[in-house]
Amino acid sequence: MKIKLLAIFACLLWGSAFAGAKIGFTYTTPLHLSGMRFTLAGLLLVPFLLWQGVDWKANLKEWRYMALFGLLQTFIQYGLFFMGLNYVPATVAAIIIGGGPLFVAIMAHLMISDDKLTGRKVFSIILGLTGVVFISVSKGLTLTTTHLFWLGIFLLLISNITGALTNIIVAKNKSRVSPVMLTAFANFTGGILLYIVSCFTEDYALQAYNLKFYGALVWLALIPAVAFSIWYTLLKRPETKVSELNIWKFITPVSGAILSWILLPGETPDLYSITGIIIISSALILLQLKPSRQS
Questions:
Q1: What tens digit of pLDDT does each residue of 261-295 get?
Q2: What is the C-alpha to C-alpha distance for residues 220 and 15, in angstroms, rounded to an integer?
């Protein structure tokens, strides 16, 4: 039960990023905001690491492993996501990214001996994806077939595969480093890389931001700092099945939609979104049903 509650809490945090990002993007560009967000996220975890009494010397011996995570989980995954979003309608991007649990389940089936696909998992994922589609198309579905559209699809798929791969790597290296240290290092190094790239690829003006922007930035930084620390901690537990844990990520678009209705002007519930939420809830309930055993 504790694992489920922590997984739900992490996914609720990730869902709140939609509203925070929408506020932040009114002041600056995506990669610039993401660079600031993840760099700050890494720094915010330093006091907690000091309080926790983490063995810095032992953990920093694995700096190459943690730097790889900064490259994969923060820089490549989120960098490709924002690049893909430039070429693909947000609705289509939401559907592709919402398919993350499917990619994780397939990779876990291929790479982890005791985490195989079952009929229950597959049906839960299909239901969850259907719910994501309903929530996404509530904003209107616009499709184009230009080469840039397909480039965007490709970039988003690679982003999703990269995110799935990082889950598998953590699960297969359960005792290698502190999950909080891994989160801090990956967020900070990946955030610096995103910020550097934004300086050369985006047109933004440095300015004195207001309190609303800084409030959104701090919240956006707290999300990966806390959520990834929780997630990596759960992945390192011996009883955790990577594929089943990631099915809880279907909560993310649900919480994102609900918080947007509450916090953002002009965002209101509609039949498609509510139907999607009901379908996703059914998928998560199905996941909890234990298969009957033959006596």
A1: 887 777 777 888 888 889 988 888 887 776 554 43
A2: 11
Residues 6+ apart with CB under 8 A from 213: 23, 24, 27, 28
77-114 pLDDT, tens digit per residue, is 988 988 887 787 766 777 788 888 889 999 999 999 88
Closest CA to 133 of 270, 256, 276: 276
CA distance 43 to 45: 5
d(CA 97, CA 49): 31
Alpha carbon of 160 to those of 2, 94, 178, 206, 271: distances in Å?
A: 27, 11, 24, 31, 28
Cα of first residue to Cα of last residue in the chain, in angstroms, is 26
Alpha-carbon distance of 279 to 283, in angstroms, equals: 6
Residues of the chain with pLDDT under 50: 293-295
Residue 199 burial (CB count, 10 A) = 11
pLDDT at 295: 39
- CA nearest to 163, candidates 72, 290, 292: 72
- pLDDT, position 135: 81
